[in-house]
Prior knowledge:
globular, binds fe (ii) ion
Amino acid sequence: MGVKSLGYVVIATAQPERWDHFLTQVAGAMRAPDAADGAAHYRIDDRPFRFRIERANEDRLLAAGYEVSEAEFDRLSDAIAAAGRPVDVLSAAEAALRCAARAFRTSDPAGNGLEFFYGDTRDDVALQSPVGVARFVTGDMGMGHAVFSAPNFEETHAFYRDVIGFRDTDLPAFHLMGPDAPPMRFAFMHADNGRHHSVALGEGPVSPAGCVHLMLEYPDLTEVGRAHDRMKAHGYPESATLGRHLNDETIGFYVQTPSGFDLELGCDSLVIDPATWEVTRHEGISSWGHEWAWQKALKQAEAAQ
Ligand SMILES: [Fe+2]
């Protein structure tokens, strides 16, 4: 029982050209050949794609696609169906579009979109980043992480843990709105690899953008700084300034994607031993930095009064 890693994401957008610019010119991903159905694919490593961008009349993350073993695939689809969630097995052609042998689509109890697949594909096409990113940190740790929100926090957390098989890494309560306001619960969960969290869940209303943020990891701070420069040069909104997280130690910043959710671009993330990790309970988000756009706006509104 267990998930290997985050394999790919599927994004619906009415602005595929904007996404193309964002992924290639800010993140530094490489445009791959379009999929057979016309979707745009982008790669960051030796998987033929990590971002699948589908033209639509809406803008949101449709699914985070997690890889499991062949043996786990059937157990997982049965367990998810038994838990009362929809299981939509994709056709062979749809799985092939995802460079997978088989895949199914589902959602967590808050409605956040998920896919699970087995039979992954790798090739020997070298990453040629249009802005010169040397590489992304992927491999066994997958493409990065996805963060969702859920008003039914406990039920949704239990789904990820008890039904899917993610394991708790950090279960913090963050005082985002000040020390006297009720804390906001989070669950940071790892798959069967060293990435601190491949999925995380925050207590709160589901975002219309389908996710809170995705995270990609660069090999060093210079790559993070260059990405920060590119964000500013192209005028993309900064959602959080450069900072370092307490729990996964990532140094990075957040930029708003064309679909409204954020992309965290960071480096130096803690690598854990998933077999021996003991759950932590942090009370703060960051050891330094990470001034959020909403905090900045609040401060400006207070100053204007
Ligand atoms: Fe993150």
